[in-house]
Amino acid sequence: MSIIQAQHIMLNDPAHVRVAYEPKYSHGSAFINGTYVDLDNAAIPMSDLGFTQADACYDVVSVSKGYFFRLEDHLERFESACTKFQLTNPYTKKQTTEILTNLVKQAGAKEAYVWWAVTRGFMPDGGDRINPNAYENRFYAFVVPYVFISNDEQRARGIDLLVSKQFIRIPPEAVDPTAKNFHWMDLKLSLFEANTANKEWSVLCDASGYLTEAPGSNIFLIKDGVLYTPDSGCLEGITRKTTLELAKEIGMPIHVERVHVEQLLNADEAFLTSTAGGIMPINTVDDTVLGGKAGPGELTTQLHNLYWTKRWDGWLGTAVDYSTPANV
Amino acid sequence: MSIIQAQHIMLNDPAHVRVAYEPKYSHGSAFINGTYVDLDNAAIPMSDLGFTQADACYDVVSVSKGYFFRLEDHLERFESACTKFQLTNPYTKKQTTEILTNLVKQAGAKEAYVWWAVTRGFMPDGGDRINPNAYENRFYAFVVPYVFISNDEQRARGIDLLVSKQFIRIPPEAVDPTAKNFHWMDLKLSLFEANTANKEWSVLCDASGYLTEAPGSNIFLIKDGVLYTPDSGCLEGITRKTTLELAKEIGMPIHVERVHVEQLLNADEAFLTSTAGGIMPINTVDDTVLGGKAGPGELTTQLHNLYWTKRWDGWLGTAVDYSTPANV
Q: Would the keyword Cytoplasm turn up in this protein's UniProt record (chains A, B) (predicted)?
């Protein structure tokens, strides 16, 4: 099965059709510190430090064919991020699951992008701003119909990737990338750099030329049948974890270690992974056609299709019951 | 004149009294993408990338005795930050000045903290997210009554500072610190680290142990009558610039260069500078009492008092005309 065939399954299967929802939720649904609203009316206080100081952590889980994928893994990673940033989720994992499920139902989305965050909240009065316990942390969430960060056409032919020359990724010694966070300026500007260079996406290295991550995604390369991905300087992506499991399943040797950018330029195949895009094949890096042949590599295609086939079989899925209304 | 005397001038002078304002602006006033509101009702859309991806730049100017200080310098720095981050302020410098002035009048604040930002705005539809021109950038601002980040008592006795052991500052190769931005997690967590160590504020080094900046402030040290401050890895603070000018005025030799943390530990005096705090003397660094004597150093005190004396004489000030209503 080629990637294009996999796309056809995705586009035509009635299991993906959006279920009933009120028109006001057409753009999505949101939850703001205790209240459910439609996304168009979702706002956060201007003086929330999650805004003015990116003082927050967040996570994103996807829903496909009405199933959350690895929800428990995302919830655990989120709690871990809260701990790393000395934030406290005001809701338990069970309550968080209820909120996210309600939002998916409100949006009527069987294919959904589900985002939630805990922010530091407002600056406490007086000098207590250096005490994390003086803050009342706040919870926000939204759900929008799923849009691939790499669209069908791009995934079918492979992404043209730029290694950023202008930016390195924020190092773990400054901000821990394993705690998913709002610190995106290096990533964003590297995307604009890619655009200027007529590329479609970017990847960032650390100060020593070792690969870290791409905007919103992890990077993998394949050389002589062996799968490589960086062990540090990046988010511990859930799709990354899934990919490593799938590679094991099909018998690929795996190296999770420091990976130099030169290895990427000499790779046979490469791809990005992301909750917002699944497995996204890379066609070229800078001006190098990987493996000397345009299009997604063979092993990449195999992993891509296995990922979606297993997901659509309900693997590690949590069903959303759309037949009952959201409990809001 | 000691720092305590300077504080008494500040606290008792009727020139600092808040002028008439509607009670709804008691917490401050705000401007959201074209609309004036009170701060309690000021909110930004949840899906503005300024929130979810810290994709924004900002600036802060202070008002004292009804005068903006170096407003033109702040406006210029802000425009420069927009350029560095490929953001476009939808308002000219003249329009920005009008908005900020209206907010100060609405808040009735003769001592004010004036904040404004331009965010990336919403994610554009389709794949155009890598093109900065596809975004409609948004302008937000707020004004609150001025609160010193270092209060009178702290400034009179000097701050107990911690050199962060757990975090380095985000390096310029990742996010340019001369473009004032929302990337604060390293700074915030270093403050919590300081709190745990029973200190009051923190300062961060780069990966090689050279001083960068403190949360929201620049760092200076004095050794044998010579003034030192880092030349890179930090915001080019307006109070920093002012301090360098004042030091020149009183004949102090100035070294703007790489400054190692060891130099701070061996300094005779040190202080922080910030729009939100002016010149803030340091008492101890880690457990070292600077100059072997508790309290603000002599030259630091001289600079502190000169700073406020000149400001209150209207130096580089732009008067706010509170006798006419805000044009909103």
A: no
Give me the CATH code for the A152-312 domain, please. 3.20.10.10
Q: Chain A residue with minimal CA distance to B208?
A: A173
Instruction: Give me the interface pTM, i.e. the ipTM.
Output: 0.96
CATH 3.20.10.10 domain position(s) in chain A:
152-312
Name the minimum distance, in Å, from the CA of B147 to any CA of chain A.
9
Size of interface A-B (CB pairs under 8 A): 158
- Pairing mode of beta strands B288-289, B201-205: unpaired
Residue that the structure tokens 């998913």 belong to: A180
Between B298-312 and B238-249, two packed helices, what is the crossing angle to 10 degrees?
110
Residues A153-206 have pLDDT tens digits of 888 999 999 999 999 999 999 999 999 999 999 999 999 999 999 999 999 999
Q: Which of residues 11-30 of A touch B (CB under 8 A)?
A: 30
Contact status of B51 with chain A (Cβ, < 8 Å):
yes
Test mutation, B185, B208, B217, B234, chain A, max A CBs within 10 A: B185
CA gap A278, A280 in Å, rounded? 6
What does the alpha-carbon distance between residue A229 and residue A119 come to, in Å, rounded to a whole number?
31
What pTM did the predictor assign? 0.96
Fold assignment, B6-147: D-amino Acid Aminotransferase; Chain A, domain 1 (3.30.470)
